[in-house]
């Protein structure tokens, strides 16, 4: 299943400083959930410091997630069933000082 995954606000630094990714998720028996995608990203694209992206079974607080430009909080967060051609954006609001 093909989807678009983007990182912004500094989150791209954890993914090889690449903002845009065309992802082809492997076929599986059950639907892909957003929670499944988080761990797939960790295992396949994340290049540095997973603790800055994931916390427990979700994204770390301070990372906004948009699915097709809609806040994932309105779409059942990690339980959202990913659809073909979805666009998923991760925006970090975490900044050092």
Automatic annotation (TrEMBL):
GO terms for cellular component: cytosol. It comes from the Eukaryota. SUPFAM superfamilies: MoaD/ThiS. C-terminal thiocarboxylation occurs in 2 steps, it is first acyl-adenylated (-COAMP) via the hesA/moeB/thiF part of the MOCS3/UBA4 homolog, then thiocarboxylated (-COSH) via the rhodanese domain of the MOCS3/UBA4 homolog. One of its GO terms (biological process) is protein urmylation. Keywords: Cytoplasm, Isopeptide bond, tRNA processing, Ubl conjugation pathway. InterPro entries: Beta-grasp_dom_sf, Mopterin_synth/thiamin_S_b, Urm1. HAMAP family: Urm1 (MF_03048). PANTHER family: RURM1 PROTEIN (PTHR14986). Acts as a sulfur carrier required for 2-thiolation of mcm(5)S(2)U at tRNA wobble positions of cytosolic tRNA(Lys), tRNA(Glu) and tRNA(Gln). Serves as sulfur donor in tRNA 2-thiolation reaction by being thiocarboxylated (-COSH) at its C-terminus by the MOCS3/UBA4 homolog. The sulfur is then transferred to tRNA to form 2-thiolation of mcm(5)S(2)U. Also acts as a ubiquitin-like protein (UBL) that is covalently conjugated via an isopeptide bond to lysine residues of target proteins. This is Ubiquitin-related modifier 1 homolog.
């Amino acid at each position: 299943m093909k989807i678009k995954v983007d990182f912004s606000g500094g989150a791209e630094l954890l993914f090889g400083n690449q903002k845009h990714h065309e992802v082809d998720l492997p076929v599986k028996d059950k639907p892909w959930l957003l929670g499944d995608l988080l761990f797939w990203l960790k295992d396949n694209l994340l290049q540095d410091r997973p603790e800055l992206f994931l916390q427990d079974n979700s994204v770390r607080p301070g990372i906004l997630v948009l699915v097709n430009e809609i806040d994932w909080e309105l779409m059942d967060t990690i339980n959202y069933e990913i659809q073909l051609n979805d666009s998923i954006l991760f925006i970090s609001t975490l900044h050092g000082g």
